[in-house]
Amino acid sequence: MGDHFDQGQHALLNEGQENEMEIFGYRTQACRKTLCLAGSIFSLGLLPLVFYWRPAWHVWANCVPCSLQEADVVLLRTTDEFHTYIRKKVMWISLSTLNSAFGLTPDHPLITDEECIISRAIRKPDLKVRCIHVQKIRYVWNNLEGQFQKIGSLEDWLSSAKIHLKFGSGLTRREQEIRRLICGPNTIDVEITPIWKLLIKEQSVKLHRLVESHNSITVSVCGRKAGVQELESRFLVPGDLLILTGNRLQMPCDAILIDGSCVVNEGMLTGESIPVTKTPLPKTESAAPWKTQYEADYKRHVLFCGTEVIQAKGGCSGTAKALVLQTGFNTAKGDLVRSILYPKPMNFKLYRDAIRFLLCLVGTATVGMIYTLCVYVLSGEAPEEVVKKALDVITIAVPPALPAALTTGIIYAQRRLKKKGIFCISPQRINICGQLNLLCFDKTGTLTRDGLDLWGVVPCNKNGFQEVHSFASGKALPWSPLCAAMASCHSLILLDGTIQGDPLDLKMFEATTWEMAVSLEDFHIRGVPAQAVVVKPGKLASQVPVEGIAILHQFPFSSALQRMTVIVQEMGGDRMVFMKGAPERVASFCQLQTVPTSFASELQTYTTQGFRVIALAYKKLAMNHHTTALMRDKVESDLIFLGLLILENRLKEETKPVLEELISARIRTVMVTGDNLQTAITVARKSGMVSENQKVILIEANEVTGSSSASLSWKLVEKKKHIAYGHQDNYINIREETSDDDREGSYHFALSGKSFQVINQHFSSLLPKILINGTIFARMSPGQKSTLVEEFQKLDYFVGMCGDGANDCGALKMAHVGISLSEQEASVASPFTSKTPNIECVPHLIKEGRAALVTSFCMFKYMALYSMIQYVGVLLLYWETNSLSNYQFLFQDLAITTLIGVTMNLNGAYPKLVPFRPAGRLISPPLLLSVIFNILLSLTMHIVGFVLVQRQPWYSMETRSVCTVQNESIWKSTISPTIPEKNSTNGSFTSFENTTIWFLGTINCIIVALIFSKGKPFRQPTYTNYIFVLVLVIQLSVCLFILFADIPDLYRRLDLLCTPLLWRISIVIMLSSNFIVSLVVEEAIIENRALWMIIKKCFGYQSKSQYQIWQRALASDPSWPPLNQTSYSDMPEDGKGVSYSNPVFESNEERL
């Protein structure tokens, strides 16, 4: 079909989203449908099968194009490089049943409210809704806008004030029923595929069990008139008001918290089972959509489906309330399940090349069919015999087991990975692991240990920073606002008598030796609600003038904001605000005069030593404000800087050896962290990611401010040999003077998430140049991590991402290979999950990926040769109107090829990573040369054997055997000496040509298997695959035994003829010559990497990968990198005009 469409026939579904699709309208035509039905009957069901695999053909055959408004069938096409088609029928939902039950009329306010998508979808006056179901999501036709829109969610354009006003009291029963009918049930159903469908679909039993419990939860719902009632979660609709009691509850939907506060375990989403505090959505008088009204992440107000509410506290109304935001597959858990059910196809060149080669084999089979028809028709054979022989050629030339053989290496690799504690939910990505050449690592919890040790605290006053208080000394921290901040500025909770929460918060609180309690109903202090967290001095704490501190309100930590704030009440004292977070962020909210002038140098002192630094600040708050009514921006202003909290984050023992192994294998390593930039640089040096003799260049970018344009500066970071503690004068980090030698050798770029974003927006033409040597990316938000991975992919890198699951989910999903070090449920979002929480799994995965990839190539070559050997042998016999018998085919297929196919892939991965990767595609010169050469060699050997046997002095068309005298009586009694007789069992002639061709072909299959079974440098040597070697020895022994044994019964069963001993020796000599020549060519030419490098150099071949093109360009650029320079964007839109884009990004996996 063409790309020209009538008005209204074509539109975009989910525009700008990951699952964006084109949608086309079609109308079924009766005459076309009748013809297709007749075709289905006459083709004996073949046509429906073709239509099943080609839904676009089904639509084009049965329908004619029309506008989407009139369509009864729609055709969807993905906008990625795969252009996958999906056919869907347009369904109708009738509201007539509600008309009789509730008196619903077209002019009812619920129907005429055009702010709601549901109302816009209802067609008047017949009260019907058109909808389609695509990948578990329901889309309804918006009559006002003339397009299909997703249903099952609250409208994104609603403001927070409108949400409180419209849904704060719940829905009426009539509204619930309308929404229930149009939005569908709140269920995440994964059907178990029936056995009869297993041929064409994959079974989903495990996934069904994973989501089964989601659909059977009882919740409390508040109705506008009905009050609170118990309801099964499957009946929930967007807009319902949930009442959250104090009991634990697994969220059955996504919901916005509008009153009270909740502590939630989001392990299913983040990979960390650390309690997260959720705050209510404020009633802001703003018309902006609720998701964009605040600087902080809107997700801090959202309770996600699948997460567990472990504590709920009431607000103004006395109970915690949440508004249902999304239901079913629209939820966070539903989206996770959909990503498993409908994974993004992997466009790995290996599989596309395999299909192309199969088509070549089909072409070869077609030639063989024509040859067969000519030979057998001219020889006067019966028509049914001609057809049978012609069809045999197809099954011989096109091995049906080829696709299965290509995946056996993956299956064995998956088993080996499982034994090492690495689990995989997307086996096809194992081959892609073999192509990885860039790996991104999160820092905290991945390269460094999870636990943070509190090293000390640096207080400050008007005179600057004071002496460090070391917690190793055992002395209690003296009472001060700093001590109060450490005791109360956290999100810890008391659960079943145990303090739980973020490890950093826990270490900080434990250092104060204070204790935690919960205020009870009889706890009467002005402004302190019941069930509030109260911290009190412990027995070991220093003397404190207050009885304790009650935490009234929290503004939780957000990785985007890099801070958290609490409002507290001192018992018998003042109301206070405490903030903790990234030092640079906290200092920006403080009064300038309270931040010491040596702040930057002091911070640098500790970050250069690899410490993690947290800043603390506070201010007093007037008592006449209600805490929940205070806006965050009002609270977080004019603070007083308190000091720095110094935490030690040590490298894991496995980190440095693994990174050294990867770097020695020429695999790029990149750090992507949310931590401080200088800390990241220090960890990169300590871990070996940046070696001692390599330079680090700091890139700082500033956004457009007023009339000034965006700026970009480049400074060389000097590694200090020693930092004397307490001497700020030793702080020299940026070296101003540079020599020409600094531009030579290896260097690494380091930049923050803010600079990365500015470069992406205003200096995008420089971005690929920076990424070529960009190694350290700090203060990166989750979204920026995903963007970075995508930008690396645009440069044709095969990118792996390794993280502990927290804030890394987007990048793990975006990368070619995502490796989660978390065992939580979130690991299902990542293709690979390691049971061992360190990066040792990464080289194991790459080794197994390389081994699996090479194994796939070995099996491809073997299956191709095996089919061609049979093909050549059969066509030669067809020349004499002869063929192989059924038992001969069976022996070759089962006893030889099947056993080889099962055991050839058992080689494990080679224990050492070499500094180059295996070929990433089948159609590569060495591999094609290997296949073509061996096909020609086998063809030559078969032709020589076929011709020579006919020229032997003992050869006669009438002679059926030349065995020894003792066997004479046997063959004379079974075969006529004068008239060639067809074997009654299989209809083929026994002949000397048949015997010769069968022995040559069968033993050649064994030889080819030995030659093609590769060992080093990607797989363990062949001799270590004991089962495979044993199988080859037994097969070869059996074949030689049959060749040299004179056993008439055996020969009769296999339809063979006895030949003179000298001819049998000649067969062995031909096979030995074939083996020697093939082995020499394979080892001396095909596998000679140095030779191919010389050939590439002679022909001037250079890699077309984008990153290598940039590397060559930068290596010849004397002005790069531009040290100690500052560049500016001419205009705020400058970057857009020269924006770097890679038009081949969609097919980046095809580049090797």
From TrEMBL:
It comes from the Eukaryota. Signal peptide: none annotated. Residues 17-142 form the P5B-type ATPase N-terminal domain. Residues 217-340 form the P-type ATPase A domain. This is Cation-transporting ATPase. Coiled coil: none annotated. Its EC number is 7.2.2.-. It is a multi-pass membrane protein. Keywords: ATP-binding, Magnesium, Membrane, Metal-binding, Nucleotide-binding, Translocase, Transmembrane, Transmembrane helix. It catalyses: ATP + H2O = ADP + phosphate + H(+). The chain crosses the membrane at residues 354-378, 390-413, 860-879, 885-906, 927-949, 996-1013, 1025-1045, 1065-1086. Residues 1120-1152 are annotated as: Disordered. It is an enzyme of class 7 (translocase). It is found in: Membrane. PROSITE patterns: ATPASE_E1_E2 (PS00154). Belongs to the cation transport ATPase (P-type) (TC 3.A.3) family. Type V subfamily.
